[in-house]
Specification:
By secondary structure, the chain is an alpha+beta fold. Helix content is about 60%, strand content about 10%. The chain has 37 helices and 17 strands. The protein has a 5-stranded antiparallel β-sheet with strand order 6-5-4-3-10, with helices on one face. Strands 13, 14, 15, 16 and 17 form a 5-stranded mixed β-sheet that branches. Strands 7-9-8 form a 3-stranded antiparallel β-sheet. The longest helix has 24 residues, at about 145-165.
Length: about 800
C-alpha cells in the first residue's frame, strides 16, 4: 500500500516533534512558539496558526479562503480579521511596508512565505492530518478493510495530537495579572447591547478565582485622574490608558456585529503596553435571545486560554442567564444603574434597579444591588426587604455573588454577625484577590467592629487597600478602626491618603469631624462642617454630629436645632429611616438629661417614621431611661422576636433595655445579671454603619448605674472608667460626658472624696457654658458643693 497525504491548508499537527526554521526564526508547532535567535516572539494563537499554514506551504500561494477555513474552521469571519492578523504577523517578524521579506501578498489570491523553510533538528516525518483541509490521497490498494485501517489510524493520530496540542498551549496570563474590560463595540444598530454585554462579560469573568478584573470603583477613579467623566465610555483607547495608569496587564475588547440573520461576538485580549494581541475568541449565534449564552461560551474559552485550570472553570461557571437574568433589557437597565450610581450617587440609581426588577422579577443580583443602594442611603428596612428577596433567589447567581448575598443577608436581615464573618472568610478563601467591596473590605467593617475586633478590622482594611488602592472602603473602615482604638494619628494618615487619591465618600468627612472633636479642635470641626454643605449623604450626617457635639458640652437648645436640621435634610432627600435614627438619638439624649416628656415625644416621633432595628432600640432606651418601662419592654420583645439570631440585638440591645426596666422596678441585681451576656460584646461599636451610633458601651453604663443603686461604688467606678477610657468608641454620645458625673458619684460612695471631687470638676468644666436649666447640671452642682 502506498499512501500520500498533502495538506493544502489547516492547523495541522504532526506526530513527533514538528520544528521549522527560516531566516533567524524557528517555529515549534507543538508548543505553539515562535523563536527569533532563541528568544520567544509574542503571537496570538490565531496569528501563530496563520504562520504555521504559510510555513508548511513555504513559497506556495495560500488563498485567503483556505487560510480562513484553516484558522477559523467553525466560524465565519470577515476578511478584515485575516488582514489584521497578517499585519500583526508582519509586525512580529520585523517587516516594514517597504520591506516585505517574509510574507508576500499575491493580489486577488492570498499570501505566501517567500523564505525557504528548513526542517528543524529532530523533525521526524509522519502522518499529518488536519480538520478543514483539502487532501489529495493516492491509495495503491483498494481493499475496503485497508482503507478503514488507514482512516482509523488517521483519526487516532488527530485525536492524540489535538489533545497534546490543547494541553501544551501556553497560558497568556498569570494570577498576578489584572485586566481592564472595555465597552463592547456594537455595530448591530440595536441599542439593547450597549453596556449590556460588558456587564454580562464582567459577571462571567468575575466568577473566576484566577482572573482579576480591576474594580469599577478603580476604573472610575482612574477616569477622574484622566480628567474624564466617571461614566465615560471605555473605548479601546480610553481602556488602554486606564490599563496603563492602573498598572494592569491587558485590555479586553469585545464586539458584536450582524451578519445577515446571524450575530457574531468577538473578544480580543491585548497587552496595554505592548499592544500585542494575547488571545482572540469568536462565537456566532442565530438569534438575539442566544447572545447571552454566546457570551458565556466566549468567556469560558477565554478563561481556558488565559491559563485557568479546568477544575476551577467547571466549579465556577454558572451560565450568564442563570447568574444574572435571561432578559437583555433587564441587564441593560441594571448596567445603566451601576453607571448612574458612580456619576450621581446611590439614591439616583434606585429607580433604574427597580425597573430592572420589574422587567425580570427573578433577577437576584438586582435585588441584592437594590439592598446595597438602600443601605448606602441609610434605609436599612428597605435594604433588608430587598436583600431578603435576593436571598430567596440566591440559586440564580454565581458563587461569588452568592457569597455577597449571603453575607448581606446575615449582616442586614438576621443580624447574625458571626455567620456573616464565616461567609466572608469562605469568600476570601475562594476569591482571595477580590477588589472593591469584597470580602476583606467587608471584614474590616461591622463583622469585626461591632464585636470589638478592632485590630482585625485594621488588618482587613489594610488587605483591602493593598488589593484595590482606588476603592474608598478599605480606607474608611481602617480609619474608623483606628479611631475606635484611639490611634488618631494613624486614622488621620489613612484619611489623608484617601483624600490624596481624590476618593470621595461621606464617611471620610465624618471621620475628619470625629478626629477634630476627639482632639478638641473646634476650628477643625467647623471646617469639616463647611465642607459638607450641599453634599448629599454628608450634610445631614455632619449636622447630626454637630448636634451631638453641642449636647456633649451641655448646649442642649442649640443641639436640638442642629438635630432638627439634620432630620429635615434627610427627609428632603426621601430618607425617612435616616431621619428616624436622628430623632431616636435625640430622644435618648433628652432622657439622659432628665427631660422625660421631650424624650417620650421624640421616641414616638421616631417610631412613626420607621420601625427599623436601630430606631426601635433608640426609642426603647429613651423610654426606659424616662421611666416608661412598659413601652420600652414591648419594643425589646419586638426586637427579640424579629431578630432571633441578631448578634447586637441578643447580646446588647435587648439585655440593656431590660436591665433599665429592672432598674426602674428597683431590682439592680437583676439588671446586673441580665447584662452578663453583653460583656464579650460591650466594647464593640453598636448601631448602624451609616449614621451615628446609638448604644455603644451602654451595657457598661447601665451596669454602673445598677452598682450605684446597690451602693457598690468601686464596681460602679470600673464601668464608668471603661467608658472614659474608650472615647473613640463613644465619640459624642451623651454617656461620654455623663460618665464623668457618674464616676464622681461612684468615688463618693467608695469614700474617695479626692477622686470624687476631681471627677465632678471634670464634668463641670466640660459643661461650664452649658444651658443652666438642665436638671442634670443642677443636681451635679449641688452634689459637688456637698463634697467641699
Amino acid at each position: 500500500m502506498k499512501v500520500g497525504v498533502r495538506p493544502v491548508s489547516g492547523t495541522a499537527s504532526q506526530i513527533g516533534k514538528e520544528l521549522y526554521e527560516f531566516g533567524p526564526f524557528r517555529v515549534d508547532a507543538q508548543r505553539e512558539v515562535l523563536l527569533r535567535d532563541g528568544k520567544p516572539v509574542p503571537l496570538t494563537p490565531k496569528t501563530f496558526q496563520i504562520l504555521l499554514v504559510l510555513v508548511r506551504h513555504s513559497q506556495q500561494v495560500v488563498t485567503k479562503d483556505d487560510l480562513m477555513k484553516a484558522v477559523w474552521p467553525d466560524t465565519f469571519v470577515e476578511e478584515a480579521n485575516l488582514s489584521r492578523n497578517i499585519f500583526m504577523l508582519r509586525k512580529a517578524l520585523g517587516e516594514s511596508p517597504e520591506d516585505r521579506r517574509y510574507i508576500v501578498t499575491v493580489p486577488g489570491r492570498g499570501y505566501r512565505l517567500a523564505e525557504s523553510v528548513r526542517l528543524g533538528p529532530g523533525l521526524e516525518l509522519s502522518i499529518v492530518a488536519a480538520q478543514h483541509t483539502k487532501v489529495q490521497a493516492q491509495v495503491a490498494e483498494t481493499k475496503p478493510w485497508v482503507w478503514g485501517v488507514v482512516a482509523a489510524g488517521v483519526l487516532i493520530a488527530v485525536a492524540a495530537v489535538g489533545l497534546k496540542f490543547a494541553l501544551h498551549r501556553s497560558p497568556v496570563l498569570t494570577e498576578r495579572d489584572t485586566l481592564v474590560l472595555a465597552d463592547f463595540a456594537n455595530s448591530t444598530g440595536d441599542p439593547v447591547f450597549d453596556g449590556t454585554l460588558r456587564e454580562g462579560l464582567a459577571v462571567q469573568l468575575e466568577q473566576s478565582p484566577f482572573l482579576r478584573l480591576i474594580s469599577e470603583q478603580r476604573v472610575r477613579q482612574t477616569l477622574r485622574l484622566m480628567d474624564q467623566p466617571p461614566d465615560a465610555r471605555l473605548t479601546p483607547a480610553v481602556a488602554r490608558e486606564v490599563c496603563e495608569r492602573s498598572g494592569s496587564t491587558a485590555v479586553l475588547e469585545g464586539s458584536i456585529t450582524r451578519l445577515g440573520s446571524q450575530y457574531v461576538l468577538a473578544l480580543r485580549a491585548e497587552g496595554c503596553r505592548t499592544e500585542n494581541a494575547l488571545d482572540e475568541e469568536q462565537v456566532q449565534v442565530t438569534r438575539k435571545e442566544d447572545v447571552l449564552n454566546a457570551l458565556s461560551q466566549i468567556a469560558r474559552k477565554f478563561r481556558i486560554r488565559a491559563g485557568e485550570s479546568l477544575a476551577t472553570i467547571q466549579e465556577h461557571n454558572v451560565p450568564l442567564a442563570e447568574a444574572t437574568t435571561s432578559s437583555l433589557e433587564a441587564l441593560k437597565v441594571y448596567s445603566a444603574a451601576w453607571n448612574l450610581a458612580f456619576s450621581s450617587g446611590s439614591a439616583a440609581a434606585v429607580p433604574l434597579v427597580k425597573r430592572a426588577i420589574e422587567i425580570d422579577p427573578k433577577f437576584a443580583m438586582a435585588y441584592a444591588y437594590l439592598g446595597r443602594l438602600y443601605g448606602d442611603i441609610g434605609e436599612s428596612t428597605l435594604s433588608s426587604e430587598a436583600i431578603s428577596k435576593a436571598y430567596q433567589l440566591r440559586d440564580r447567581v454565581s458563587d461569588r455573588e452568592r457569597f455577597f448575598i449571603t453575607f448581606n443577608y446575615d449582616r442586614q436581615v438576621t443580624g447574625n454577625l458571626e455567620k456573616a464573618r464565616e461567609t466572608l472568610e469562605l469568600w476570601a478563601q475562594a476569591y482571595p484577590r477580590d477588589e472593591g467591596p469584597g470580602p476583606h473590605s467587608f471584614l474590616s467593617g461591622a463583622p469585626s467592629v461591632a464585636v470589638g475586633r478592632y485590630e482585625t478590622a485594621v488588618e482587613e482594611g489594610t488587605k483591602a487597600i493593598e488589593l484595590d488602592a482606588d476603592s474608598p472602603w478599605g480606607y474608611c473602615n481602617r480609619a474608623a478602626a483606628y479611631i475606635f482604638l484611639g490611634r488618631l494619628p494613624e486614622a488621620q494618615a489613612t484619611i489623608d491618603r484617601a483624600f490624596k487619591l481624590k476618593l470621595q465618600t461621606p464617611a471620610l468627612l465624618v471621620m475628619q469631624y470625629e478626629i477634630a472633636f476627639l482632639r478638641g479642635d473646634k476650628a477643625g470641626m467647623d471646617r469639616v462642617a463647611a465642607q459638607s454643605e450641599g453634599k448629599v449623604g454628608a450634610e445631614d450626617w455632619i449636622a447630626d454630629l454637630e448636634g451631638s457635639s453641642l449636647a456633649y458640652s451641655g448646649h442642649l437648645r442649640a443641639a436640638r436645632l442642629m438635630t432638627h436640621r439634620a432630620m429635615d435634610l434627610a427627609q428632603e432627600a426621601g430618607e425617612q429611616e435616616r431621619a428616624a435614627q436622628y430623632e431616636a438619638g435625640a430622644a435618648v439624649r433628652e432622657a439622659l438629661f432628665g427631660n422625660r416628656l421631650e424624650a417620650s415625644r421624640s421616641a414616638t416621633a421616631a417610631l412613626e417614621l420607621s420601625n427599623g432595628r436601630d430606631v426601635e432600640y433608640g426609642a426603647a432606651l429613651a423610654l426606659a431611661i424616662a421611666g416608661d418601662s412598659t413601652r420600652s419592654e414591648a419594643l425589646a420583645n419586638d426586637l427579640e422576636q424579629r431578630f432571633p439570631q441578631g448578634t447586637l440585638v441578643q447580646f446588647n440591645y435587648v439585655p440593656t433595655a431590660r436591665a433599665l426596666a429592672a432598674l426602674n422596678r428597683g431590682k439592680p441585681s437583676n439588671a446586673i445579671e441580665l447584662l452578663e451576656v453583653a460583656r464579650p460584646y460591650e466594647l464593640g461599636f453598636a448601631g448602624s454603619d451609616d449614621v451615628a451610633s446609638i448604644g455603644s458601651l451602654y451595657p457598661a453604663y447601665v451596669r454602673g448605674m445598677a452598682y450605684l443603686a446597690q451602693r457598690q461604688g468601686a464596681q460602679a467606678a470600673g464601668d464608668f472608667q471603661k467608658i472614659l477610657s474608650h472615647r473613640g468608641i463613644v465619640f459624642a454620645d451623651p454617656i461620654g460626658a455623663l460618665a464623668h458625673l457618674q464616676l464622681g458619684r461612684a468615688f463618693a460612695l467608695a469614700g474617695n472624696k479626692a477622686k470624687a471631687r476631681e471627677a465632678y470638676r471634670n464634668f463641670l468644666m466640660l459643661w461650664k457654658d452649658a444651658d443652666p436649666d438642665i436638671s442634670v447640671l443642677k443636681r451635679a452642682k449641688a452634689e459637688y458643693a456637698k463634697l467641699q
